[in-house]
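Troubleshooting: if your tokenizer reports a length mismatch, compare your output against this known-good record of 607 residues.
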Amino acid sequence: MPSWQQLRDVKLSEFTDAADGWGKVSSRSNSDKDRVDNEMAGRIRGTQKGDTAKAAVADLDQLSRNYQYLHAECGLIRTALNGLATELAAPQRKLKQALEDAENLRFTVHPDGSVEYPAGGENLIDKKPIPGGSAHGSQFGLFSPTGPPLQQYPNSPLLSPPGRFPALGGGNPNQTKAQAVADSIAAAVREAAEIDGRYSGVLAQLKAEPGLKVDNKTLADAASDTKRLQDAAGKYAAASDIPQGKSADENAAWWKGLTQEQRDEYATLYPASVGALDGIPSTVRDDANRMVFAESKAKWELELAAIPPEPKPKLVSHGPRGGMVYSQEWLDWHHEYEDRKEELEARKPGMEAIEKRLNRGADSDLPEAYLLKFDGEKDDGRVILANGNPDTADHTAVYVPGTKTKLPEIEGDLERADKLYTQSAALEPGQRFSTITWFDYNAPDNIPEAMFNRYGEKAAPDLRRFMDGMETAQGGPDKSHTTVMGHSYGSTVAGMATQQGQGSGPLADDIIAVGSPGMQVEYASDLGVGREHVWTMGGGGDDVLVRQGGRLVGHGEGGTIPTDKGFGGNIMTSDAKDHGAFWNPGSTSLKNQAAVISGHHDEVILD
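Known-good structure output:
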């Protein structure tokens, strides 16, 4: 328990000055990480091959991970020190007010917190002077059920009605005042002790082992550090402060209203929440989500590594006739671990595909990647990943994948966005492009589930909010030429999203429906962008089945699907042989999509 003298004398500015220093280290570490990723490792990946290059890249990846850890941990220390200073300010003010009151009343405050008061008034019965005394603050407070009984304070206003002071039998009026001062001092010290206890425990954990080499265990510990500080600093920076379910404009207004230090602290404490906020800068979201991804991947790999190997032999002889049964050891392992192991192993391709894309530097054939959302646990996972910064792009395309999309198999969808970028950027080499894989919904897992609209109904508001947020972050609807491209059920989601937020502007400048089973509207003009800005294409093989199946189950109003002439959109020539072949390199299908994305509408080949 700190003393009241310590609380009085503590210089809170020393905490905030130290916090500024840790904040600078955190920011510098983040900048250094970006430099390692883009200027060093990226160049080696793009220009060098062989074992030496692989070893150099591995060392640089380790260095990048170290910097990312420093960025996070130093940010936590900054936030803890600022939170400590901010919260201690209230009890310190309370203490100083109590000491000032004591001085004005000519009371003496002793080192133990007791308050000595002088004689005051006279006894109403025998007229003798009423002696002074000392008041001691309540250790627990008058309202604590475990504290001293109220009766120990005979002059407490809580025990006597107004107008009864001093008591008829004689009472020093200074006693009540001194008791109030003593209680204020005790309450201030008690509050400061609680605050100090919360933060000191967290700060004690924020340390690294000598010879820093950040591994999965270190990153998992960093996630635990963040959770501990969230619990400790909830009064200083609460999760509830961050907008939930608000519009992109409201999110942006909240963010703009914060100081830079507050922005850094919320991003450090609640990276997943900040990283998911539509409407704030993509650089901020990327920084936050990279930490979320790194910690999620570390915990995933640690859990997988902790599962013991499958016992051998699986089958053992049973009985005199030599029948074979599962061994008890294998059965125990099977019931406890097998399903979870399969689930964790299934995530590997998707996690590795995201990491591979994040590690590709700007000197490769693709620009720097921006991770705009990541959630490895919800449904089949969530990821929004951009090639290039959409906030500064002249042309932005958002690709919405369809049925069977899930995080473990996201690599193919990421590659489609890569191809769209390369093909589109080649048409306008002097302009900036961003192509985005938007997988932020629970896609149908199979064809029977794809017959239902409920997946699109849940996804459409989120896609609309993302598009609005992108426009907000860009600075307005005229800052970038935007295209939404939906494949398969993704086009159904896109069509439904156009019906969200009516009155707030079109969903995009152009809309492309690829292999679409229907967009929940009857005519292209219903999509809100003008029929001349609606583009559709179909393919052969199973793509015919997907599109005609969508017609049968009613994904298009009036039985109309986008590749129907009656729909009224621009039907583009396609050489796709099946439902997934629209992005084959050099294909007419890919070139047509790129022409729309780059604004070269006159170069589109129509069917």
